[in-house]
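Recap slide: DnaJ homolog subfamily C member 8, sequence and predicted structure.
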Amino acid sequence: MAAAGGESSQIVSDELFQNFYTEVKQIEKRDSVLTSKQQIERLLRPGSSYFNLNPFEVLQIDPDATDDELKKRFRALSILVHPDKNQDDQDRAQKAFEAVDKAYKLLLDPEQKKRALDVIHAGKEYIEHMVKEKRKQLKKEGKSLDVEEDDPEVFKQAVYKQTMKLFAELEIKRKEREAKDMHERKRAREEEIEAAEKAKREREWQKNFEETRDGRVDSWRNFQAKGKSKEKKNRSFLKPPKVKMEQRE
């Protein structure tokens, strides 16, 4: 639990997000393809374990892209970050490749893809709702209804940030459930082992009881026999002496 909390504080850092978003978008604007080194850097930046939860962002592909476009994008990106192509940075390239491969496989699963799309749509709807609320407040105050999200880039950034947070929250909850399930399975296993050991001890006791029963019976019989013999001896020892009859003259 604690580990998840530490990671969640990392992901919600506005400064971290702002730096990551700004730098990545600057790179994308300068070079829409990105070099192998730039892609590896993008995929392994601080906080990437949460940034990479959005498979569409990992592959840099539009959520509305077709399966054919998805396949082509995966092929191009996987070649860029493949360890064989990055001999001077194979370890990091391998991690970047795994992130790309994981995102691609996730989007190949219709159910997983739908969940990812639902998160993206929820992030966009949340920002749209917040913009409406801002305008309502401005109207109530008699001010201009212009908001910073009217700028498409600002709106896009807000959606990106909210979507990232939603993905992070879901991942934290997933890890918490996983930890809870693991704890319950461990406890169930321990109880199972304890019950098995108890049953084993009882079987061994019963077996030992059966094996030594004849010996105990013989011991008891011998004890009884000795007791009777001793009792007879005591009785003969305690017999009163015979009284001699007096002779009369």
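Residues 1-12 have pLDDT under 50 and may be disordered.
Residues 32-108 form a domain with the Helix Hairpins fold (CATH 1.10.287).
(End of recap.)
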